[in-house]
Structures are given as structure tokens and as C-alpha cells.
Amino acid sequence: MNLPISQHLQIDKLSSVFSSTSATYKFYWFLAILELVEKDIFYIEKRKIFSRMISNSWYTVNYFQVSFGKQDLIQDAVKAIMKIENLKINENKNIINSVLENTQKIETVKILNHFNKNVPHWFISSWFSGGRNDTVPHSQNFEHGALYHLQKRLYRN
Prior knowledge:
- The chain is an all-alpha fold and about 160 residues long.
- It has one domain.
- The protein has eight helices and no strands.
- It has helices at about 10-15, 25-40, 45-65, 75-85, 95-100, 105-115, 120-125, 130-140.
- Helix 2 (about 25-40) packs across helix 3 (about 45-65).
């Protein structure tokens, strides 16, 4: 993927994020971050991002019934959440986000937490030379030019 040159962003690193994709997670993760930053939100809880990953894929999964492959579980997550949360197939995106950001249902929280296993780490791994275990500590400052830093904290009920 060729992106325009920037003095403030390492475009080569961002391009490399999308050079190897076996699932849709990276695309939906990035889209969710862009949506939130456009709203001037710069400290973003992962749950907000995971919620938008689901709401952004909602229409594609439910109307086009696209299969993203066996290892991509986003379509399974959408279908399960729709049942657990009693959401409609044509539910408004803002309602989906609100429900997912505020739900106390353990099954839904568990589904959303699934995305924390790899997506946040692999997305910014291009900025670091170490493995996944180095991503959190290396992301704590922006000397590597990464788009965001990670915190280990995860939401619970």
C-alpha cells in the first residue's frame, strides 16, 4: 500500500502494517482509531476501539454475509453479540457502540477482550524490532514514532 509522504509520520511503518494481513482486524482497528481521533479523543480505551471494530463490520457481516476466513473471528463476534445483546440486524451504529461500551454481560465482554490478544500489539509491531513482549514497554514513549502506546490494563465487569 502506498501512502502519501508525511514529515510527522513514518509512512513506511504504517504501510508495512497492511502488507501482511490474514484477517480484517488491522483494518477495523485502524478505522476505529481514526473515527475516535476525528472526535478529538486522544486517550482511547481499548473497549471503545473493540466496540467500533464490531459496529464497523456489522453491515458487512449481516447484509453481505462476507466470510473473512477461518482465523478471522470478527463475523462470529458480530453474530454472537447480536444475539447476546438482543440487537437488530439493522441496528444503528451509534446504538451498537453505546451498548458494547456499557454492557455488563460477561459473554460480550469476553468476546470484545478476544481482540486484545493480538490486534493492538501486532498493529504497531512494525515500529519495533523486538517481539510482541517488547511492544508494551517500547510503546511507552514515542521515540520510535509509533502511533500510540499500550497499557496492560484491560477492562473488567
